[in-house]
Amino acid sequence: MSGGRTGAIRCAACQKRIRGHEPDLILQDLDGGGPQRFFHTRCGRAAYAAVAEKLGAYRLTVRHVEELAN
User: Fold this and answer.
1) Of 31, 6, 30, 8, whose CA–CA distance to 18 is shortest?
2) Residue 70 domain-assigned?
3) Which residue in 14, 24, 38, 56 has the most C-beta neighbors within 10 A?
């Protein structure tokens, strides 16, 4: 991953754009293979709430701005 993100990624909770200089959360359904959902780190509670009462396996990944931190 070099440089930054391409395209406009929007937060699944607040619908605001996640800018390239902001860290974010990526929620992925491991069972259904559905699309990845992106969240601001400040909207992380909404990511947990999205899967709290659903069955299945999910992965929540924090993507940092600095490439070395990932």
Assistant:
1) 8
2) no
3) 24
